[in-house]
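We examine the record.

___
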Amino acid sequence: MDVTLSVWQALLIAIWVALVESRVLGFATLTMRFSPLMTGMMVGFIMGDIKQAMIVTAAIQLVYMGFVAPGGALPAEPAIGAAIAVPVALLGHMSPQGAIAIAVPVALLGSYLYQFRFFLNTFALKPMDKYAREGNAHGLRLSIIGIPTLISFVLFIPLIFIALYFGAPVISSLVSSIAHGTVIHVLNTVGGGLAALGIAIIMQVIGKTRLLPFFFLAYFMSVAFAKLNINMTIYAIFGVIFAILYVTLSQKNASDNS
């Protein structure tokens, strides 16, 4: 399906990124910032191809599965990476692996933009001590929530819009023109390697010896059942059953040993 990016589509995606990066909705937008899945879904909805957008975003998600954010700081901004890479992939009919190779450097650049937002927020927070001494609740809300949110929108919307509206079509056209060349092969290879790295990181994060068999069980189930076209709902049911069995048997062993 041929997909074009209009002014309104680029603007809506840019507004979504600003909303996520501003964290104006609290924990909900914080979670969206750490994961590209919701951003990918919104991009697919705006561009009219949710299915392919989610296929691409699922591959990007693999890279960031093991990311942790101590103090809210991330080495990359997955939401920004997805906001740029998914439209480029849809416009240029790229493979998910190729989209990963675009998302990763964009997400790294996005982290510098997010840190610049922190710098700008310091000016908004300057009068906070004064408002606190005065008991000025309105001033505190303005200083802590209002102005930082406005800064986020003023910073992210123009930059993301320019990157999408002017940059995405150029990149996608270039990708289409070299679709079967060495560059795309390299992008696909690098992207596949980054996805494997993401899986390795999540294994390191949750890599307790007693849990690793479940990880490998899930992987080999997906390989063995690939031809059966089992959807994610069935796999989720399998996961719930295994979790219940694990907890039940663990509790039984604990009671037997006590």
About this structure: The two ends are 62 Å apart (CA to CA). The chain has eleven helices and no strands. Residues 208-258 form one domain. The mean pLDDT is 76.
